[in-house]
Design brief:
about 180 residues; 6-stranded mixed beta sheet; binds inosinic acid; alpha/beta; 4 helices; Rossmann fold; 10 strands; binds magnesium ion; 4-stranded antiparallel beta sheet
């Protein structure tokens, strides 16, 4: 066991955690509920769970293990933020799923809906590929988006307006590994 890892988790450079907003147990309970909701919601047919990287990687891996039906997993990589905490609205696709989307139920999994700009661009792009259905599952929703092309059908938690990190969410690529969700000072 390395010494000093506790303080590393709470501070990276000048950035400090303010408080834990959702602890690991609360997240696990809600993710299990979401898995059950998704299992119940989907009719027959191929289900492709499409994770938006990198933010969704921990959420997606926990979520799919709580979905009790056949499914496939793939990922999208879209870059929308720079190093800061403000959405630029510019979305670039850096990785496009290899899996065929046409005729499948697509469940797009996102870590957090903030301005909604990332999702609005992706929804337009994915609809053009003729999926059988397209829905969004977001772990966190800030409910500040002015316009959403498609409202999330499945939401883990309503999020405070603070900048959140942990359980996949980053600040300049730090804090993704935390097992809980915390706000920054
Ligand atoms: P949107 O396009 O403004 O909705 O931004 C969505 C993306 O911005 C998310 O997928 C996150 O990667 C990032 N983001 C937005 N709010 C936060 C936050 O509070 N903490 C960490 N990342 C965030
Ligand atoms: Mg990010």
């Amino acid at each position: 066991m390395l010494s000093g890892t506790g303080s590393l988790q709470k501070q990276t450079g000048d950035t400090k955690l303010a408080r834990i907003v959702f602890d690991a147990e609360t997240i696990a309970r809600r993710v299990a509920e979401l898995g059950a909701e998704i299992t119940a919601a989907y009719p027959e047919g191929d289900l492709l769970v499409l994770g938006l990287l990198k933010g969704s990687f921990i959420f997606l891996s926990d979520l799919v293990r709580r979905i009790d039906r056949p499914l496939q997993v793939d990922f999208l990589v879209a870059a929308s933020y720079g190093e800061g905490t403000v959405s630029s609205g510019n979305v670039r696709l850096l990785y496009d799923p290899e899996t065929e989307l046409a005729g499948k139920h697509i469940l797009l999994v996102e870590d957090i809906i903030d301005t909604g700009k990332t999702l609005n661009r992706l929804v337009t792009l994915l609809r053009a590929r003729n999926p059988r259905s397209l829905e969004i599952c977001a772990l966190l929703h800030k409910h500040i988006a002015v316009h959403l092309e498609l409202e999330a059908a499945f939401v883990g938690f309503d999020a405070p307006r603070a900048f959140l990190v942990g359980y996949g969410l980053d600040h300049s690529e730090n804090f993704r590994h935390l097992p809980y969700i915390a706000s920054l000072t």
